[in-house]
Write a structure and sequence with these properties.
This protein is of the alpha/beta class. It is built from twelve helices and 15 strands. Strand 13 and strand 14 form a beta hairpin. Helix 5 packs parallel to helix 6.
Length: 334
Amino acid sequence: MHLTVQPLALSLVHTFTIARGSASVARTAIFRLQHGALVGLGETAPSARYDESVESVSAFFAAHPPRGDDPYALEALLEGIPPAARCGLDLALHDLIGKDVDRPLWRLLGLDPSKTPVTSFTIGIDTVETMLAKIDEVRDHPILKVKLGTPNDLELLAAIRERYAGTIRIDANEAWTPERAVEILRELERFDIEFCEQPIPAGKPERLRWIRERVKIPIVSDEDSVTASDLPALRGCVDGINVKLVKCGGIRAALAMIHTARALGLNVMLGCMVESAILATAAAHLSPLVDWADLDGPFLTKDDPFAGITYERGKIVLPEGAGLGVRERSRSAA
């Protein structure tokens, strides 16, 4: 097998801001894994939050090309690789295997494509006026996820709820203290919030439990739930977890997280970074297994060079093509 890893810069429709920072361009790494006449596509979107980058992923595979020549030897090929790097190779291997047997990944996993959830659409932090303008652009979308972590969070949610009647989720990206989280979540209860994602910095599950015991809005972990091994400590502390392929290391690791969460009685959301259709489509193949989806990467980018996942009023539609079912757009179609 021959692997190439190339950087991809994705311009965004709007500058995307969360509590940790802003970006107008998303940087990912595209994997092409050739085996005979077949090429498997993969992608990773490393985050500095987890001490990884496009450069670190490229450097890893420059020094450690895939071991062996059997794409079905997944455990041996993926062992010992850092999560973001492992994600890209894992996706390319699953795409290659699906193309080899001419079946879509969801079918290889035995899943029902009609049971996909509706994804949320994320509204990044901005001025109240700009965020309301963004909401006006997607008013018909049934679920919004609103990024919080500013001094005017209450004013913002009040203004949004006056204008938007659909489901609202919120995500503070570790921005609050436990005391502030309880204070603001109690105030937000009147706005019918579906759940709050990662209100405080990761690393202290007992503080999430303390918040959960004092508010009515369900709590979902993200930065606290990176891999399956993190989940036992979260039992009783949160209502659900956010699974992201880049955080945990790909499809196999995501399946381990989903099944572990179910064993612990936790709800599951599939999330994404800002990424192309390759990563979003790969996660979408697992979506019949979960309660919630936040797979909106293709909504947030301009000129995505790949096509795969589609949506019907926000409901995820899985591709029928072999493997991930992702294709490269022609230059004229991009």
